[in-house]
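Minutes, project check-in
Item: structure for the 259-residue chain
Input as provided by the requester:
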Amino acid sequence: MIRKQLLLIIILIYLAPAANAQVLNIERERLKTDTAGLAGSVKVNVNVIKNVKKLTETGFFSHLQYKKNRSLFLLLLDYNLIKSGKDDFSNNGMSHLRYNYKITPVVSAEAFGQAQFNKVLGINYRSLAGAGPRFKILGKPGFRLYAGVAWMLEHEEPVKKEDALFQNSTETLHRLSSYVSFTIKPVDNLLITNTTYFQPRPDKFNDYRISTDLSAFFKVTKIISFTFSYSYLFDKVPFEGVPAQVYAIKNGLIVDFGK
């Protein structure tokens, strides 16, 4: 009976619907801790499935955070590949480095740099760098609300397709990146986080991106927890042949055999 239950849990995790919109929720990745020093985690997975076709899935995620006095460094590395023959169902990677300096209990200064690619969404290479203030609007035990705005420089190179009649051009431009983020813990066994970004071009305001990431962690029992996440990306001016709206829905169960 126990083996059947564990098998069911594994099936639920791997058959959960997913589509990688590559929305980066920085608020979810910040480790809420007052302890100075280094903290983080690394996750690696390689899966090979063979039935009618051979499906290969490779994933890597690394989260490192270093805190000292008023300074906080955050490094994220993420790579995902789902491939069947010559077809890529998902092929994307990202590295993100962020520095946060707390000026007052309410205001912090942030600077960040990011490099990424997403072959499925037509992004061969995208790099960006920016800086701006971050504000702690509300910080109660069961509810936290933050907002921030940054000016960033973005460089984007499209994937070249030999059979395409129209080729997207390489762009280097400025964007504003503003966000609102909240964390809710209504009860001890439920945690909900959400971050929504609005990223327009100052020189062409009808060229903008909106992205949101919602995640929930619900502890069912002492050893079983349920996770849910929803991410959505709307690009007003996407690359030719790429949909303007992309979303991902992921859910799963976590079994903790620790004490």
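Outcome recorded: Residues 20 and 248 are 6 Å apart (CA to CA).
No further action items on this chain.
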